[in-house]
Design a protein that fits this description.
The protein is α/β, with parallel strands linked by helices. The protein folds into two domains: 6-83 and 152-243, 3-Layer(aba) Sandwich (Rossmann fold), CATH 3.40.50; 273-506, P-loop containing nucleotide triphosphate hydrolases (Rossmann fold, 3-Layer(aba) Sandwich), CATH 3.40.50.300. The protein has helices at residues 46-53, 76-81, 99-106, 110-119, 136-148, 166-181, 193-199, 235-243, 259-270, 309-316, 339-344, 364-368, 384-397, 412-426, 442-457, 470-475, 498-505; strands spanning 8-17, 20-30, 34-39, 61-66, 69-71, 84-87, 154-158, 185-189, 202-207, 210-215, 221-222, 225-226, 273-282, 286-294, 298-303, 324-329, 332-334, 347-350, 430-434, 461-465, 478-483, 486-492. The protein has a six-stranded mixed β-sheet with strand order 6-7-8-3-9-10, with helices on both faces. Strands 18-19-20-15-21-22 form a six-stranded mixed β-sheet, with helices on both faces. Strands 2-1-4-5 form a four-stranded antiparallel β-sheet, with helices on one face.
């Protein structure tokens, strides 16, 4: 193979999931001796491309090339056979098995795995521990060590440092430096642009399923190994390429404020504080978070993948306890041992995965009255007053009950309505919504937007994390932006733009 010949490449690769087009004729190439960044906003197609390179999903069109030869991957075994190893954003481990049993299933040599555990200073890890009992940062290292134990030529790393401690992240950078020096290759998906400039040699930008830019600083090749990094590339240039418009041209609207905008400002200044956190910490994942949420307000939260937002919602809902900091409900400090305690204080969660909160094999009505279980003596025979509450929620949310015998038979949008509807039945004061409209149809999204605004108008306090930036202006009053575990900016939702939100979400200063 010539020095210029890519080690791993795609040619006009396309992929769709039903009506959703994930990739559109993507060309991508990784050379020997380089760390290549794969960048893009949420939903740009990065993870889909990596899954094709890893043999998880077949491409609908186009081809994958290894050392210049077109190869068709039928499954991940085919991809590993040609020297690729992938570490996905979610650890690919069976939770109810031990670490050792997972290794046996993967046919990984224990000595090679142990070597890489020592590299990451995890030699004391109990291999007989159940995977589900280990913290996420440990599982990411276990997954990486397992991939490295295969001695691959190409590493595919999807947000590898997002859940790691600072020390472990440094060890990843040291590994990638050594990888480059050995003439191997790595693909790094990350939202941390400082990491891209520090360790990467080139960067490919995806937007709406297309590769729209290639950043390739001048670099000299020595013995087939590239020298130099992305240090000379301005981070705002990378964000602009991802966004597709000038992020430096953030202009205020010339239109006068609407009545709703004026009402929004009034809500954020005059209403009582319903929920607040002060100095909230959880390891290196959530760092010194403080904010106030008022009655009648919808406070948005924006963050790129893996910036600590999931951990934050776990803390706010009582699913985890913070290492430091204070949670206040109506001005009184609370320390919850479980979500049940938070619910007792009127703080409820709508999780991103709606199936986590539903009983899929039970009917709609039973699901709606779950929070009232302590008041229902016979579970399958709902008293008339609770039955009426359930019917009211069905009518108010226009839940399609044609498949009401089992919630799992409902559409995704109707399942989400049930997840929200149960709290209309039980009552609440503060609603924590984690990406509640992800994966549902446009009409249902609009219905949920209207419901959230209606709930806020009736005095509820709502914290809304969303991965769809357009929702911020449609629904929220204010928006907080989270980066690397911290709140780094606050914007008026009425004036926020996709450019201003994405710029702040990458940890960059938003131009005035």
């Amino acid at each position: 193979m010539s020095e210029s010949q890519p080690l791993l490449a795609t040619v006009k690769v396309a992929k769709s999931y039903g009506p959703v087009v994930a990739l559109r004729e993507v060309d991508f190439a990784v050379r020997r001796g380089e760390v290549h960044a794969l960048l893009g906003a949420n939903g740009a197609g990065k993870s889909t491309l990596v899954k094709i390179l890893a043999g998880v999903h077949p491409a609908d069109a186009g081809s994958v090339h290894v050392d210049g030869r077109a190869i068709q991957f039928h499954d991940p075994v085919d991809a590993m056979a040609v020297g690729t190893a992938t570490v996905f954003q979610d650890p690919a481990l069976i939770p109810d098995l031990t670490v050792r049993q997972n290794l046996q299933l993967s046919e990984i040599k224990g000595s090679a795995f142990t070597h890489w555990l020592e590299w990451f200073d995890l030699q004391a890890l109990d291999l007989d521990a159940l995977v589900r009992e280990l913290p996420l940062e440990t599982l990411r290292v276990v997954d990486l060590a397992r991939a490295l134990a295969r001695d691959p030529e190409v590493l595919l790393l999807d947000e590898i440092t997002a859940a790691l401690t600072a020390d472990q992240a440094e060890r990843v950078f040291a590994l990638l430096t050594e990888w480059r020096e050995q003439g191997r290759a790595a693909v790094l998906i990350t939202h941390r642009l400082a990491d891209v400039r520090r360790i990467c040699d080139r960067a490919t930008i995806l937007r709406d399923g297309r590769n729209v830019a290639l950043f390739e600083p001048n670099a000299k090749a020595t013995n087939g190994t590239l020298a130099g990094t992305m240090q000379d590339v301005d981070e705002h240039e990378l964000v602009e390429a991802m966004l597709g418009s000038g992020v430096g041209e953030l202009e205020e609207s010339d239109e006068p404020e609407t009545a709703s905008q004026q009402e929004s400002d009034a809500r954020t200044s005059s209403q009582e504080i319903a929920f607040a956190v002060q100095g909230l910490n959880s390891g290196d994942v959530v760092r010194d978070i403080s904010f106030e949420l008022r009655r009648g307000e919808i406070l948005g939260l924006v963050a790129l993948e893996g910036q600590g937002q999931e951990r934050l919602f776990s803390l706010l809902s009582g699913d985890r306890q913070p290492s430091d900091g204070v949670i206040l409900v109506d001005g009184s400090q609370r320390r919850w041992r479980a979500p049940y305690d938070a619910v007792g204080d009127g703080v409820v969660l709508i999780p991103g995965d709606r199936l986590l909160t539903l009983l899929p094999n039970l009917p709609v009505r039973q699901n709606l009255v779950v929070p009232l279980f302590s008041r229902i003596r016979h579970w399958l025979h709902i008293p008339s007053d609770e039955r009426q509450l359930a019917m009211n929620a069905i009518d108010r949310l226009s839940i399609d009950t044609r498949a009401a015998s089992q919630v799992r038979r409902l559409s995704g949008g109707n399942q989400q309505k049930v997840a929200i509807g149960r709290w209309l039945v039980a009552g609440f004061r503060t609603l924590l919504c984690f990406d509640p409209t992800r994966g549902i149809d446009v009409q249902t999204k609009r219905e949920i937007y209207a419901l959230l605004r209606e709930l806020a108008a009736s005095g509820a306090a709502i914290l809304l994390y969303t991965s769809e930036l357009a929702e911020i202006k449609l629904v929220c009053d204010r928006v907080l932006i989270m980066h690397d575990g911290r709140i780094v900016d606050e914007q008026n939702a009425a004036h926020a733009t996709e450019a201003s939100l994405l710029t702040a979400a990458h940890g960059l200063e938003v131009p005035a």
